[in-house]
Structures are given as structure tokens and as C-alpha cells.
Design a protein that fits this description.
single chain; Uridine Diphospho-n-acetylenolpyruvylglucosamine Reductase, domain 2; Uridine Diphospho-n-acetylenolpyruvylglucosamine Reductase, domain 3; Uridine Diphospho-n-acetylenolpyruvylglucosamine Reductase, domain 1; 4 domains; seven-stranded mixed sheet; 15 helices
């Protein structure tokens, strides 16, 4: 059932070498249930893949990689007009579209030629040429890996968005698609001809095209623009077309470059063409190693031969940075970066007054060493293609500039004390394209609604930061499939949160940690923990208390943070700590 040290290069359309420590393929629900009870499933990170057409394995996958081989297509005629087609998740999408066209079922012909498998269609909400999978998906049958039961989601429950669904958020890693039901028309006549080339097709042939003619035309257009993955590796469209507010387009983008075209995208929003932005930024044909911006379609990064994952990552970052500098637009990859590494940057390692303290002339505050200049506490976590901000200190604007932070996917807030949220208004540059997600406790949310009431009014002033607040409890939650575990710690008498992400945990402002929460901190590779000073404090851990806690938890490495000036010089702190414990400093970066 399981294969070990599996070469998965051929399972992705990029064709970039990678291995999975454990691999399993299943062709029935019974097999999947058996896998879900195995130690290989229970004791490892699990990733479920489809046809591998939108994946980039940045390194070898250190866990269990699952793949569905559930196939078969069944037709149910509801009446003479409506037909339901139910396909197994392991069916190739191109085979499914061809089957529908052969059966005279209209609805998916515009989606011809898209690589991948049926199971990925609802996850990614695949789309092209004026159509999206959500237009025809009726329901999605899934295996719930938490309860080991089969569950069915309606179209509405899937919460489809642009290349998005709930399966990419809280459902990622939990629900494995088994089958998808599509509601189609019993007709050979095409009806969705709004996309330009399809309008031209009708004019050229002189009649309303059949679904076969549309499918053939779409396939021909794709073949002319996109590389054949069997010949040149790629993931198809590498970036999403950005959707931005009309205000940001008019006041930000056009101010830099008036010629950027846009298209309607709902009330108050417009869509930009990522391929146009990349080409007009001068990147057509740009290469790094074996990775190239595909000349026929700049939305594609192609493996022109021998490309490494690092080549693709570096080229994508160059594209994002170049487009950002020229057009003030942040491109978001459509491709999923599968990278289990966690890179942490300590943006600020000081307490509420920072170091040096204003007006203080002690030897610490007068130190010339940059290691002794401590801004208020916050950190940046990069993993699985996400940039997550831990707390937003009053010094965040300076921290973002110093660390070249120009993209954030979400912010995690520990508590509402000013030194941890005072920079929230400075998040406005990250809200121009879409509302920034913030995860926080209800009491923190209530407090921010009072402090930043101008952000939450029914008709806010143009340009204020816009947030999508997610209230969390003690239960794990997911950001684009990444599991986040909140940890309740006591800041004196105030319960606040720390967060665990994989084998890394971040805790500041703790005085004690309840025993039931200590379990969440076992088996860490890296822990960031507050240690205010030598003297005891009613709400913060002292040095000795922090070291005692680290000794109990036994992380492989620990980093002390949230120092005040009494903590001493960095070099002095470093000398007195055990080998696996280090004083954090502003700008410290480490990888787990």
C-alpha cells in the first residue's frame, strides 16, 4: 500500500526532480479509510495531490503524499434538458471534458485542455475562456479525514471564488475529494460565447458553434499559447490575474502607469491581466537557470530543461518584485509551493518601551551595537508559500521597510496590548488588492473595533485599511490549508494566545502556561519565548522562569525575546545561556 522514498518527478507537470518520503495511491473509499488509520497517516504531515498540474515541490516532501485513483463517469438524466455527470476524482480532466462533449452534454467545453484531474476542479475552481468549474458543479463528495466519514458539499457550501474554494482554506488537508457531480445541459449547442476568441469563432463559421467546435477551438488556442507539459514542463498559468479595488486602480496603479488595462470584476473591483503586466515589465523570455518566462504566454514559467525548484522560485520572486516596482501590483501565484520548511524572522525583540528607552542613559540604552537596538515585538513566518505576520507592533512600518516586506497573507494577533497591535493602521499597503485576513480572539476583535472604528464603518473613507477578521478560540484553524494551533498562555491574569505552526511556536508576554496547553508545545524544533529580565515580573517570564520552562518542553532550539533594557547587552545574554538557547535580536532569521 505504501511506497517509500518515492520519486514523484513524473507526477507533476513541471517535471522538476522531487521525492516523497512516503507515497500511497488508493482506488476506493475502503482503501482510503484503511490508509487514514495507519501510522504513516497519523504520524506524518499528509498532502493530497491530484494531477500535479499546479504544484511546485520546493524540496523533497518529508511526509505522506496521497493520490486518488478513483475513476469512472456515470450519467444521470434528470429530464430532457438537465443531466448530472458524476466523475471520480482520479479521472483526467481532459478525458472528462471529452466524454461530456461526446455525450452531447454542454457546460464544460470552454474548459477543454486544462491539465489535471477532476478532483482538483472544485479545489482550484478551474476556469478559462469565460467559464469556471463553479458554474456547473452541483455537489462534491469528500472523505473527512477527521471523522473518517463521507460528506457531501453543495455548490454554495464550497464557497467558490476566483481560483479559490473552501477546500484551499479550512477544508485543506481535511477533505479529500472522492467524486464530483456536474449539472450539465443535454445539448450539443454552445451557449457561453462571451470570451473574445469564441465570439470570433461564431462570426467566422457563420453559425452558433457546437460544443465540439468550441472545445476544439479552445484546445487550439491553448496549444498555440501554452507549452505541452509532455515536452516542456510547466504548471500552466503560474500567477492569478490580480483583482484590485477601483480606488486602488485609479489612485495607485494608474498614477504610476496610465496604460494598464482593466476589466470589470464586480462592484468596486477590477481585474488586471497578469500576463500583460509581466510582458510590459520587460520580462518576456527572462531566464534564471532552466526556468523561463514563456515567450508565447508570459503568464507561464516553463522548465526549458534542467530547471531546479530554486530556479523557478527565484524567477517567480523576480517577476513579483519587478511588477510590484513598476505597477504597484503584487502578483499572487496560482501554483502551490509545497515547502515544509518554516523560515522565521524576528522583526522586533523588545518590550513595550523598546530598547533604547526614550530618555534613558544607562549603558544598555547607550550601546552602539545594532544587536542592542530592540523594536517592539513582532515576527514574520514564511512557509508553504505564505507570509504570516505575528503581531503588528507600533514599529511595524519601520520593520517592513527594513526587511523588504511587501506581501502578507495574514496576521496572527496574540493580544490587544498596544505594543502588539499599535501598527495595525500601517497594514494599509497590504489591503489595496484585497482585505487582509487577521486572526484573533473575540476580545481583541472587540477592542480593535473600538480603536479602529473608521476601518469598520459601513461606508469607510477611501484608502483606510480593510480587514477580514477571523475570531479564533483554542481550536486549531487553517490558513490556505496550513494548520495553526492557538496556545492559551497567561499574561498575569489575562489569557492571551501564542501560536504553533508545524514544529515552531511563538509565545510572548507569558507568565505561566496552563498544563493542558503545555501538551501543544511538545516536540518542537524551535520555540520563541519571552524573557523580560532577571528580576521577577507579575506578568512576564523572567530569565530563570523562561529557562525552566524551556527545560521542561525540551525544544531543539529556543530563542528568547521581548527584552527590556535590564536584560543586559546581547553579548552578555548570549554567554549565560545554554547551547540550545539564544537571545533573539531584530532581524534574526532562522529556518526550522
Amino acid at each position: 500500500m505504501f511506497e517509500y522514498d518515492k520519486d514523484i518527478t513524473s507526477l507533476t507537470t513541471f517535471g522538476i526532480p522531487a521525492k516523497a518520503r512516503i507515497f500511497a495511491e488508493y482506488d476506493s473509499l475502503k482503501q482510503l479509510e484503511r490508509i487514514s488509520r495507519s501510522p504513516e497517516f497519523l504520524d506524518n504531515e499528509v498532502f493530497h495531490m491530484g494531477g500535479g498540474s499546479n504544484l511546485l515541490f520546493v524540496n523533497d516532501f518529508d511526509g505522506l503524499l496521497l493520490h486518488s485513483a478513483i475513476r469512472g463517469i456515470v450519467r444521470y438524466d434528470k429530464n430532457e434538458d438537465t443531466v448530472f455527470a458524476i466523475a471520480g476524482a482520479g479521472e483526467k480532466w481532459t478525458d472528462f471534458v471529452n466524454w461530456c462533449v461526446d455525450e452531447g452534454l454542454a457546460g464544460v467545453e470552454n474548459l477543454a485542455g486544462i491539465p489535471g484531474e477532476v478532483g482538483a476542479a472544485p479545489v482550484q475552481n478551474v476556469g478559462a475562456y469565460g467559464a469556471e468549474a463553479k458554474d456547473v458543479i452541483h455537489h462534491v463528495e469528500c472523505f473527512d479525514s477527521h471523522t473518517r466519514k463521507v460528506v457531501t458539499f453543495t455548490n454554495e457550501e464550497c464557497r467558490f471564488g476566483y481560483r479559490d474554494s473552501m477546500f484551499k482554506h479550512e477544508g485543506k488537508g481535511r477533505y479529500f475529494v472522492l467524486r464530483v457531480s456536474f449539472r450539465l445541459k443535454n445539448s450539443s449547442k454552445a451557449s457561453n460565447l462571451t470570451y473574445g476568441p469564441l465570439k470570433a469563432l461564431a462570426e467566422r463559421i457563420g453559425h452558433t458553434p457546437t460544443i465540439r467546435e468550441v472545445a476544439d477551438e479552445v484546445t487550439a488556442i491553448r496549444n498555440a499559447k501554452l507549452p505541452d507539459p509532455a515536452v516542456i514542463g510547466s504548471a500552466g498559468s503560474f500567477f492569478k490575474n490580480p483583482v484590485v479595488t477601483k480606488y486602488f486602480y485609479e489612485e495607485g496603479i494608474k498614477a504610476l502607469s496610465p496604460d494598464v488595462p482593466c476589466y470589470p470584476a464586480g462592484e468596486h473591483h477590477v481585474k488586471l491581466a497578469a500576463g500583460w503586466l509581466i510582458e510590459h515589465a520587460g520580462l518576456k523570455g527572462k531566464r534564471i537557470g532552466g526556468a523561463e518566462v514563456y515567450p508565447n504566454q508570459c503568464l507561464v514559467i516553463a522548465n526549458e530543461g534542467g530547471a531546479s525548484a530554486e530556479d523557478v522560485v527565484n524567477l517567480s520572486e523576480l517577476i513579483i518584485d519587478t511588477v510590484r516596482r513598476k505597477y504597484a501590483v503584487i502578483l499572487e501565484p496560482e501554483v502551490n509551493f509545497i515547502d515544509t520548511r518554516i523560515t522565521v524572522t524576528i522583526l522586533g525583540s523588545g518590550t513595550s518601551k523598546g530598547v533604547p528607552e526614550v530618555g534613558c542613559a544607562c549603558r544598555i540604552c547607550r550601546s552602539e551595537s545594532p544587536l542592542d537596538k530592540r523594536q517592539r515585538a513582532s515576527a514574520l513566518v514564511r512557509t508553504h508559500g505564505l507570509n504570516l505576520l505575528l503581531d503588528v507592533s507600533p514599529d511595524f512600518r519601520a520593520q517592513a521597510l527594513q526587511n523588504n516586506i511587501y506581501r502578507l497573507d495574514a496576521a496572527l494577533i496574540t493580544h490587544s496590548h498596544y505594543d502588539h497591535v499599535g501598527g495595525i493602521d500601517d497594514l494599509r499597503p497590504f489591503c489595496g488588492q484585497q482585505d487582509l485576513s487577521i486572526y484573533l480572539k473575540k476580545d481583541v476583535s472587540d477592542d480593535l473595533h473600538k480603536r479602529l472604528d473608521y476601518c469598520f464603518r459601513p461606508h469607510p473613507y477611501p484608502g483606510v485599511p480593510k480587514f477580514d477578521l477571523h475570531e479564533v478560540s483554542t481550536q486549531p484553524f487553517y490558513i490556505n490549508g496550513l494548520k495553526i494551533i492557538p496556545i492559551t498562555v497567561m499574561h498575569g491574569k489575562l489569557p492571551i494566545l501564542g501560536y504553533r505552526i508545524g514544529d515552531f511556536a511563538y509565545i510572548t508576554d507569558a507568565k505561566t502556561i496552563p498544563e493542558e496547553e503545555m501538551v501543544k508545545l511538545r516536540g518542537l524544533k524551535a520555540l520563541v519565548l519571552n524573557a523580560l529580565r532577571d528580576r521577577e515580573h507579575f506578568a512576564h517570564l523572567s530569565f530563570s522562569e523562561a529557562l525552566e520552562l524551556i527545560d521542561r518542553l525540551k525544544p531543539e532550539q529556543a530563542y528568547l525575546t521581548h527584552f527590556n533594557h535590564e536584560a543586559g547587552l546581547h553579548t552578555e545574554i548570549e554567554k549565560r545561556l545554554p547551547d540550545n538557547v539564544h537571545p533573539a535580536y531584530d532581524g534574526l532569521t532562522f529556518t526550522v
